[in-house]
Amino acid sequence: MNDTFRKSINWSLGIAVITFVLAAIFSIVSTYTLSGVTWAMGMVVVLIIVFIGIFFDMLGVAATAADEVPFHAMASEKVKGSRHAILIVRNADRFANFCNDVIGDISGIISGTASAIVLVQVAIALDVNDNGPTQLIISVIFTSLIAALTVGGKAIGKTLAITFSTNIVFQVGKLFYFAEDKLKLRILKDARDKKKKQNSKRK
C-alpha cells in the first residue's frame, strides 16, 4: 500500500473518531444547557454555537491563505509562536480540515438541533398550537435567521481570513506555543523532526 495513501487513511480514521467524540460532547453540553434555561437564553446559546462555527471556519481559511515566508523572518529572531505558525501553514490541509469540516460542520449540526429545542420552548412560552400557522411562522423566521447568520458570518470571516491571514495564523501559533511551553501539549508535529530522529537512530 502506498505510504501517502496509508497516511491519508490513518488521518481520515483518526479525524472521524475525533469528530464522533467532539460531536457527542457538543451535543450533550448544548442539550444539557438548553434544558435549564429560558427560550431567550436558548437563543443566545444557539448564536454562540453558530459563532464558534464561523470563527473556526475563518481559522481554517486563514491557514490555507497564509504564506510561511513572513514567519521564517520571525523565527530567525526567535519570536514566540512563529515556528508553530510555520507548522500550521505546512499542515494547512489538515488544520483546515479540522477547523472547517470537523468543528464547522459539528457547529452547524448542533445549532440545528439546538434551534429545534429553542423553538419548542418558544411555542410553550407563547402557548402556541403545534400545528398552527403561528408555530410555522416562528419556525421559518428563526431557522432562516440562523441560516443567514451562518452564511453571512462565514462570508465575512473568509474575507477577514484572507486579508489578515498572516496575523491570524500568528496568533494561533502563539496559542500553540503556549500550549506546548506551559501545558506540555504538542498539537502539531514537524515531519522534518521525525526524519531527523529516524536518521539519528539509523546512525
From TrEMBL:
It comes from the Bacteria. The chain crosses the membrane at residues 12-33, 39-66, 102-124, 136-156. Keywords: Membrane, Transmembrane, Transmembrane helix. This is CNNM transmembrane domain-containing protein. It comes from Bacillus mesophilus. The lineage of its organism: Bacteria, Bacillati, Bacillota, Bacilli, Bacillales.
